[in-house]
Amino acid sequence: MSEILKNLNSLKSDKHKIFMEKLVRSKYEILGVKTPLLRKFAKDLSKNLSEFELLNFIKFEDEIFEMILLKGFILANLKCEFSKKLEIYNNYIKKADNWALIDSVKFKKIDEYLLFNEINLWLKSSDEFVLRAGFVNLLYYFVKDEYLDFIFKTRNPQGYYAQMAKAWLICECAIKFPNETLSFLKSKNLSDEIFKMSKSKIKDSFRISNNFKDEISKIVY
């Protein structure tokens, strides 16, 4: 553990530390290690440590942002049963207090059935970042025709970071399923805050047609 922290300290930058402290606003100590360097370090550790050693490292409690995110990167690519990954990931997202710890961790392979069941539970949470994990995992893996109805019926959460995650999800739906998403937006089943966030994300996207953007400009909540 001390050797890993020593390596992280050798990669840190005071300039990046100041930038990240403003960007993520975490209660955890931020060293200032850039994400590509952190990903590379996670990859190196995954090659050099056994699964047992990696699991023990991930389970160890920490109060440093980069150490927690490093564990997230290792977990995402760990070669173990997906049910085991989800068990550990559940604890991981409960420690998250910022968007970066959620958004940066993406599983290389998933068990769709198990993950979808967990998402259903996360979306019922009162924790803003557990909720965000639910929406973010939906947009990473489940923006598919068979899940659209479920996505459109998800709750309208409170909390800026959960709301923004749902808006991001709706934008992703607009990219892949413009007709269905436009119909959904016209049904006015979003909260006013999330509709405004979705509209902003859609208008900023280069992958959505101007015609779609013109149509949502006409929608008044």
UniProtKB/TrEMBL annotation:
SUPFAM superfamilies: ARM repeat. Coiled coil: none annotated. InterPro entries: ARM-type_fold (IPR016024), DNA_alkylation (IPR014825). Pfam families: DNA_alkylation. Gene3D superfamilies: 1.25.10.90. PANTHER family: ARMADILLO-TYPE FOLD (PTHR34070), DNA ALKYLATION REPAIR PROTEIN (PTHR34070:SF1). This is DNA alkylation repair protein.
